[in-house]
Specification:
The complex is a heterodimer of chains A (435) and B (589). Chain A is built from twelve helices and 23 strands. By secondary structure, chain A is α/β, with parallel strands linked by helices. Chain A folds into three domains: 70 residues, Elongation Factor Tu (Ef-tu), domain 3; 225 residues, Rossmann fold; 85 residues, no CATH class. By secondary structure, chain B is of the alpha+beta class. The chains are: A alpha/beta (435), B alpha+beta (589).
Chain lengths: 435, 589
């Protein structure tokens, strides 16, 4: 029933309206304009009037252009051939490879039955001590990186993409700067991780509607791979652009805005994406790590606020480091009991001492006299920041735990750390290592 | 009469417009036929022959002209034996059975029976032929786990009916006939063990509503002592993300001294429900010795499930709660989170293009929230027994700001407010309920005058702490410094509670009263302390001992030993009571 309509009745923003029959909600159509073809999606039906959202934008479309309904909703090809490839937000190749059209699957499928979920149990190693030791990433977790513009969040994501112990990485770029896109591509190529990566990249210069599709396409593909037993890590950067795209479109559609112009369903929309993170019993899993840049470093802004209610913790990236305070992986308790028996204790002890260091710093800056204990803390704090917190540190968990002991031994006596004595007897370095 | 039918004339998100032929009513359920699927929907507005329906499923693939069938029924739930230990979605579909049928994903258009039609129940009749009964009266009972489940005359029966026939004791399925009754007009009706009830109507088949007075014990010290909740009362827990709302709800669902707990996971993370789902069948209820699951019903409509069904889920939950209340049981309904429910209303209101109120919430937000919380209550049933529904709802205010509409509308109607504070959560002070901002209108296990005295110390301690940040410890008088230490002590050893410690996690009223006695002794004492350093050391020592004391089993040798250490410590420094505390103690005796 590929009927062609060539009378577009209205064009407003990215939305066009045609009179048509037999059209289903959410169906796709192909709009052929002078400058080329574009896909469009049905977003409202009202009697004969069909409103469509044009993916490449309605600019350049004339009222006499052709609209052909395809009779299905948005689909993406799912094959092994996706690996190593780069696509745009509508699934067209962005590299020079062929268009993939076999085994099409629908995107934005139904939600997982809560009764089929399992309690998360596997950690994902990243080689970054601030994650592995202090806020462990867990398979099937959804975590955002809360950051501000200018922080190296994309560098962090690229490192995680190269090092994370998963089978497959899907990188969804939303409103990515072109430079950043090239950075990701080059880094992964050089690191040799491209062959296990699939890119869906919407750059800042691409049409805004395609920004909305990136998370859905990425997660639909991830879901299919997970059902084949793959452990998939989905990286989404930057989800703030996704929410802003939603705002832009909602306002052109004349929807009543709720909070700072964002649509009332912002929470549900974000949740339906993040909740795709899941561990399928007996087969693969999806883990989601997203970037949320906080406008004005304000965590109460609707985007980070709604995200925080949905996700299982957050990483704060500030001054080029993952902040130990505020950052939280809610699922870490599920896995850090099984790594090494000193893991939890050293994690707590180091953070408590780091908090004490912060207090000493404050005292110092206010001109109070430093005690011997303060001096120890100051030494500890600077070692901790350079040896552990620095984003360039790249060591496996066990080494990171050993390093923690070494740093403590360099600065303190065992009884000053607040660690249980059976642990200090076993793990305290016998010879003071040169840290 | 032929069923009303209609045709789809518009689709906008999860709202569908339908042109109908025949009569329809508001909140009536209809099914949209798409290909071979039937999608459940509810009428939310009628304008002439055009009605707007919210669809409880994804609307993908619906086209103009698709047929719609109306059922002449309001959105209803099935009530009968077998509800306990079930896991339902917002429309009362049993999720585990759904998983067996459809696998990992929730397929749309599949609706299963809420109550198992094959399972048999041991029915013992209590009514006799010739008895005159009315709605809510017992026909008989069946054992359901640890409870005696009353089989009742359906709540929608008008006036009184005469029993014409009742079956003899034996095993029956929920849908087999157990009685026949005749109404005043002479019309006979067959009754089974189950019936349906529209979720948006409160069940009123009781004699009278009473004022909630008895305390509902949660075994969380800060709640039971300072911010008590009554059986049949209402309370709310607003808090920013990460403040521990859900953990507090989980702890309450485990430890609360009630008969039945209904958990409504409304628009929150699925992972949190999973913990409850997997743990409850393993955890034993100390009171009954059976698993917690046997006293629990979970209604689970998590954030990624269709929004319209989220709105229905809180009503489904409260209806089931009211049903068990009718058996003379105390039911606790925990709704997490009511903000997501309010947001679902906001989404629908936006699609209906209603004039928005504050933050685009609909103008009727307040009255809807009020009528939901008003379904809580303590009632005297027609048989003289009391039953209650207590509602505790979490609120997720945008940006953690309590000034927003949902929090404010909720505060107007609840009896207790347990506000969570981000500062306390960041400082790892759990449960992070703010002791000064929160309030309760109910009477707890401890004399209010004494708790007020303790709160006053917290208040003054907080003030002194603020002042000390400016003038330093040196600039603070010893007297003030001791008050500050007392308030920190109270906060650390009484208000904070370790939910991972097997003993400290749940503290019953007997122990709370006893411990509070000791605490009051310390708070009200004039202490002989000569310097700030001595005060600091004294309290830090006392605190350490008290924390160990909190972890000691009630009346165990370790408990008694630590109690003696603590009492001796106090005795050594105590120099009588302050005059207010003295008079409070005198009046208590």
């Amino acid at each position: 029933m590929q009927k062609v309509y060539n009378r577009i009745e209205s064009i407003a923003g990215n939305v066009i309206t045609v009179s048509a029959t037999g059209v289903k909600y959410d169906d796709l159509a192909l709009v052929t304009a002078r400058h080329g073809e574009s896909l469009a999606q049905v977003i409202r039906l009202n009697g004969e009037k069909v409103s469509l959202q044009v993916f490449t934008g309605a600019r350049g479309i004339s009222t006499g252009d052709e609209v052909r309904f395809l009779g299905h909703s948005m689909q993406i090809s799912f094959t092994e051939n996706l690996l190593g490839r780069i696509f745009d937000g509508s699934g067209r190749p962005r590299d020079n490879g062929p268009t993939l059209e076999e085994n099409l699957v629908e995107i934005g499928g139904p939600s997982v039955n809560p009764a089929m979920r399992i309690i998360p149990r596997n950690m994902i190693r990243t080689g970054i001590p601030m994650i592995d030791v202090f806020n462990t990433l867990v398979e099937s977790q959804k975590l955002p990186i809360f950051s501000v513009s200018g922080e190296p969040y994309n560098q962090l994501l690229a490192r995680i993409a190269m090092q994370a112990e998963v089978d497959l990485i899907i990188l969804g770029g939303i409103g990515l700067k072109y430079d950043d896109y090239l950075f990701f591509k080059e880094t992964l190529e050089e690191g040799g991780a491209l062959s296990r990566t699939i890119f869906f990249v919407h750059t800042a210069s691409d049409p805004i509607v395609e920004a909305l599709l990136v998370p859905d396409i990425s997660l639909a593909v991830a879901e299919k791979f997970a059902l084949q037993g793959k452990r998939v890590l989905v990286l989404l950067t930057d989800m703030t652009n996704f929410a802003d795209a939603m705002k832009e479109i909602a306002i052109t559609m004349e929807q009543v805005p709720s909070n700072r112009g964002y649509p009332g369903d912002l929470y549900s929309q974000l949740a339906s994406r993040y909740e795709k993170a899941v561990d399928f019993e007996g087969t693969g899993s999806i883990t989601i790590l997203g970037v949320t840049t906080m406008p004005g470093d304000d965590v109460t802004h609707p985007i980070p606020d709604n995200t925080g209610y949905i996700t299982e913790g957050q990483y704060y990236l500030r001054n080029g480091r993952i902040e130990p305070f505020g950052s939280l992986s809610r699922l870490k308790q599920m896995v850090n009991k099984d790594t090494r028996k000193d893991h939890r204790s050293i994690m707590d002890a180091m953070i408590t001492l780091y908090a004490a260091f912060k207090e000493s710093m404050e005292k110092k800056s206010m001109g109070f006299r430093m005690t011997e204990w303060d001096d120890k803390l100051l030494k500890y704090g600077s070692l901790f920041e350079t040896k552990m917190m620095d984003l360039s540190v790249n060591i496996p968990l066990e080494q990171a735990l050993d390093l923690g002991w070494e740093i403590l031994a360099e600065c303190f006596e065992p009884q000053e750390t607040g660690l249980r004595s059976d642990l200090t007897q076993e793990f305290w370095p016998k010879v003071k290592a040169e840290v | 009469m032929a069923k009303t039918t209609g045709k789809v004339i518009g689709v906008n998100g999860n709202m569908v417009s339908v042109e109908v032929e025949g009569d329809v009513s508001l909140n009536e359920v209809g099914y949209i036929l798409v290909n071979d699927q039937k999608l459940k929907s509810e009428i939310i507005r009628i304008r002439g022959s055009r009605v707007e329906m919210q669809v409880f499923e994804m609307t993908r693939g619906i086209g103009i002209g698709d047929p719609v069938e109306f059922t002449d029924q309001l959105l209803a739930v099935e009530l009968g034996p077998g509800l306990l230990s079930q896991v339902y979605d917002g429309l009362q579909n049993p999720l585990p059975e759904l998983a067996q049928q459809c696998g990992f994903f929730l397929q749309r258009g599949i609706y299963l029976n809420a109550l198992d039609r094959k399972k048999t129940w041991d029915f013992a009749p209590t009514a006799k032929v010739g008895d005159v009964l009315s709605a809510g009266d017992s026909l008989g009972t069946v054992p359901e786990g640890i409870f005696t489940h009353r089989i009742m005359v359906p709540f929608d029966v008008q006036g009184s009916v005469t029993v014409e026939k009742i079956v003899s004791p034996g095993v029956y399925t929920v849908d087999s006939e157990v009685a026949v009754v005749k109404d005043s007009k002479g019309k006979s009706a067959a009754l089974t063990m189950m019936f349906e009830w529209p979720v948006k109507r409160a069940i009123t088949a009781y004699a009278e509503r009473l004022k909630p007075v008895d305390q509902m014990v949660t075994k969380v010290r800060i709640i039971d002592t300072f911010l008590p909740v009554a059986l049949g009362g209402t309370y709310c827990i607003p808090g920013p993300f990460g403040a521990g709302k859900t953990v507090l709800q989980q702890v309450t669902s485990r430890n609360a001294e009630v008969d039945i707990v209904i958990i409504a996971a409304c628009g929150e993370r699925a992972g949190e429900v999973v913990e409850t789902l997997k743990e409850f069948p393993e955890l034993l209820d100390p009171k009954t010795g059976r698993t917690l699951m046997e006293r629990t019903v979970i209604i689970c409509n998590t954030s990624s499930m269709p929004v319209a069904a989220r709105e229905a889920s809180v009503y489904t939950a409260v209806t089931i709660a009211e049903y068990y209340r009718q058996m003379g049981l105390n039911v606790l309904l925990l709704a997490d989170s009511t903000s997501r429910w309010a947001q679902a209303m906001r989404e629908m209101s936006g699609r209906l293009e209603e004039i928005p109120g504050e933050e685009a919430f609909p103008a009727y937000l307040e009255s809807v929230i009020a009528s939901f919380y008003e379904r809580a209550g303590l009632v005297r049933l027609k048989d003289g027994n009391n039953g209650s529904v207590t509602i505790g709802g979490t609120v997720s205010p945008a940006g953690g700001n309590f000034e927003e509409p949902v929090t404010q509308a909720t505060l107007k109607v609840v009896g207790a407010f347990h506000g969570l504070s981000r500062d306390r959560a960041d400082a790892r002070k759990y449960p992070s309920i703010h002791p000064l901002d929160s309030w309760s209108k109910y009477q707890g296990c401890i004399d209010t005058k004494q708790t007020d005295y303790a709160r006053n110390i917290l208040f003054r301690g907080n003030e002194i702490n603020q002042m000390m940040k400016v003038v330093g410890e040196e600039g603070t008088s010893l007297e003030d410094y001791v008050v500050y230490q007392k308030s920190e002590f109270l906060d650390r050893v009484y208000l904070q509670q370790d939910s991972f410690d097997p003993v400290d996690a749940s503290v019953d009223v007997e122990r709370q009263t006893y411990i509070f006695g000791i605490i009051f002794d310390i708070l009200g004492a004039q202490l002989n302390l000569s310097s700030q350093k001595e005060a600091r050391d004294f309290f830090s020592n006392l605190r350490q001992n008290f924390l160990d004391f909190n972890g000691a089993e009630w009346q165990s040798p370790k408990f008694k030993e630590l109690e003696k250490v603590i009492r001796d410590m106090i005795q050594e420094k105590k120099d009588g009571f302050d005059s207010v505390a003295q008079s409070l103690l005198a009046s208590a005796r």
